[in-house]
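Z., the sequence and structure:
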Amino acid sequence: MSAPGMQSAPFAVGCARQELRRRLRLHLYEESGVAPEGTAIYSLADPRDVRESRYVGQTTQPRRRLIQHVRGAELWLGDEIPWWVKAPRLRPLYGWIRELYQQADRLPVMIVHAWVGAEHVQREERRRIRLCLERQLPLLNVAVGDGDCADEQATT
């Protein structure tokens, strides 16, 4: 039993997760200018420079996907190297999210650039990645040329 006024570890983690979800609502921006329908093409960026995309992805549920990205970074594990990430190609992304959080509790910003139908998702995501690479942005995605731009197909 914990001392009066002390929170148990599971309770504290639950409170931290609720706080993250609350904060992340303020980190989702819609710039497509169209009604949300189909699949969103989005980027993640540092809140200090939202025009410098660090990752490009696709999802049918942007808010949920942003929460998944942050949860995947396991922020409560401190300075550990992200060994738990099942897909090694995502380790740089989650390492970057953890680095942001270590700098004054910053969280990534998600910007929805476009909503597209299923037949255009891969093409639009690749186009967005190419635009970022042309601007020499430090993307954490898998390279466009290897045929696997979508790091995770389970983004819906």
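The CA atoms of residues 62 and 86 lie 22 Å apart. The longest strand covers residues 49-59.

Let me know what you think.
H.
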